[in-house]
Design a protein that fits this description.
The structure holds two protein chains of two kinds.
Chain A: H1 2-8, H2 10-15, H3 21-31, H4 33-43, E1 59-61, H5 65-89, H6 97-124, H7 148-169, H8 176-200, H9 223-230, E2 237-239
Parallel strand pairs in A: 1-2
Helix pairs in contact in A: 3-4, 5-6, 5-7, 7-8, 7-9
Chain B: H1 3-13, H2 17-20, H3 24-36, H4 43-55, H5 63-87, H6 94-119, H7 139-160, H8 168-191, E1 225-226, E2 229-230, H9 241-246, H10 254-258
Antiparallel strand pairs in B: 1-2
Helix pairs in contact in B: 3-4, 5-6, 5-7, 6-8, 7-8
The chains are: A mainly alpha, B mainly alpha.
Chain lengths: 245, 268
Amino acid sequence: MSNITQNASDEAEFAKPLYTPIKRRSFFMYAGATAGATALLLSGCDDDDNTNVTPASGTVSLGSGDVGVLNYAYALEQLEAAFYAQVKATPAADFSATEKDYFNQVAAHEAIHRDFFKAAINRDAPGKIIPTLGAADLNFGSIDFTKRASVLATAKTFEDLGVAAYNGAGKYLKNPAYLVIAGQIVSVEARHAAYVRDLISNGSFADDSIIDPVTGLDKAMEPVAVIAAAQPFIKVKLDASQVGK
Amino acid sequence: MNILRIIEQLSEVDADVLGRFDSRRAVFKGLGNTAKKGALAAAPVFVASLFSKAYGQTAAPSILEVLNYALTLELLEEDFYKQMTAAGKVPAGAPAGAIALILKHETAHVKLLSDTIRSLNGTPRTGIKFKTSAFPADYDTQLVVAQALEDTGVRAYKGQAGNLMSNSALLQVALQIHSVEARHAAHIRTMRGQTPWIPASASSLPAPLGPVYTGSTSPREDNIIQSGVNITTQLGTPYTANDAAASFDEVLTMAEVTDASRAGGLIA
């Protein structure tokens, strides 16, 4: 009987906890009070009329400040999630069973990242989220989803780009709780990148093409450069010029 | 921006919120001064500094301490891979190539961190060695240790990001090392026939490696709640606990990592 009750209110249950004091409380316990206080600064800002999202003539601004960084991550995660959803829906004919299984897991990770950012932005900065990037807004025309090599090459591009994006954006975050979350996600992206690279060529998980052999450093890219690299796959124009500013 | 509303919200979770400020009077005097300057845009900055002053950890490690901590872990990893190479059990070909590449990166990280510490007029740690008695004789167990070191390294760097926020350049460098450790971890895990990412079912590795995937103060790696959001049930679409756990890596604190039950116990 309780199952029926729960099902009936499923939709409300999904949204509700993101707004209740109870959840804020657990967020504090997890993130620490300094971080929580900063999150409250954002939630305390909804009386302000400074608009971060100003779509004009087909351009979507990712916004400024921490919300801009979160929207930037949300845009990239939407791109990755949509790509892997297609990989999952129409797996390459020459994928092995393990590869299919692993890419289904990667698809779930990226969908989780996407949905998490959506929930976090709507909770912490109501009204500031960028529009959803739907199938009509994306351009996967250059990818042959029936061929393993084409899928892997695109996955490598997206994962390496994602790692460089998070590495370059961390310094723009003011809220330490967001920085930790970004760190929790970027290492998973790096694991994906290593996996995909090893599938293309075993041992290339961190080869000299991506890791500087002298400093041992991964790449870090600025938001504008990352969006420029991602833009061929996104029809709507994204403006990252104010991210973190 | 309504500071009273913020303080009110904060009082929901912290009854002592006002007691944390220097004094009530000081708070509002400061606010008044800010407002007088007409710097409305500066108000959020003022409030942020107010809260970080009220809640800031008094024992946060300095940047040099963080860098020397990172250097300690890099020295430990470097020496481990040197011992692994010298032991001669790594099969030629792809495995030897991977270990050599990883060793090259750890050596590079040691140099980079040491140079950085010196440039900040600090004294870089030296002489950190992997405990010989803990070094496994067989290749398979050597890989287990490598996995423990890499996955711990990922958690350790992640745990210090917040302590480097005051220095953008160093924070970025730390992040650029952090993702390299994650790539290493993914490859070592793949060499061991595991998923490159950490599933919910990952448990502690055999002694003396200890609880690599648990936490005493930090969340365990099978954690499914991020920023107060239950990933399996509160994102509009249900996700499995395994995918929820694997999609986020977790931090470890300095105290956890250096504890004798974890990496600290592997230092000679």
